[in-house]
Write a structure and sequence with these properties.
- It is built from six helices and two strands.
- It is mainly alpha-helical and about 110 residues long.
- The chain folds into two domains: about 5-65, Arc Repressor Mutant, subunit A, CATH 1.10.10; about 75-110.
- A two-stranded antiparallel ribbon has the order 1-2.
Length: about 110
C-alpha cells in the first residue's frame, strides 16, 4: 500500500529520532525512494523539523527539537485514537447493562 506524503514524512521523522543518518541510510531505513526522500527532506527542513549536518564531505540529516515535538504530538494523537475505541466500548457496555453502573455507585447492593 502506498503511503501519503504525511505518512512518509512522519516515518522519516520517526527514523531520525534514534540517530542522524546519511541520505542513503535514511532511504533504506525509512523505506522511502531516494528521489522522493530528497523532496520530503526539503519540505521538513524548510519547516524546521529536520536539519542537515555536514561532517567532512558527508551530509547527515537529524531531527530538530521542533521535529521531536511534532513526533510526540502525532504519537499522542495516535494514542488518543486508540483509547477512544476502548472508552467507546466501555460506554456502550455500560448502556447495555445499566445495573452494573448503578451497583458500582451503591456499595450496599453488593452485600445483599
Amino acid at each position: 500500500m502506498r503511503r501519503s506524503r504525511l505518512e512518509s514524512c512522519e516515518n522519516i521523522l520517526e527514523t531520525l529520532v534514534s540517530k542522524p543518518l546519511t541520505l542513503c541510510s535514511l532511504a533504506s531505513e525509512a523505506h522511502v525512494d531516494p528521489t522522493l526522500l530528497v523532496q520530503y527532506l526539503d519540505f521538513l527542513m524548510r519547516n524546521g523539523l529536520v536539519e542537515e549536518r555536514t561532517i567532512g564531505n558527508v551530509s547527515f540529516y537529524a531531527i530538530t527539537e521542533k521535529g521531536l515535538v511534532v513526533i510526540k504530538a502525532l504519537n499522542f494523537q495516535k494514542y488518543l485514537r486508540k483509547i477512544k475505541g476502548t472508552i467507546r466500548a466501555i460506554d456502550e457496555a455500560l448502556e447495555i447493562i445499566p445495573e452494573i453502573s448503578n451497583q458500582s455507585d451503591d456499595p450496599k447492593k453488593f452485600s445483599e
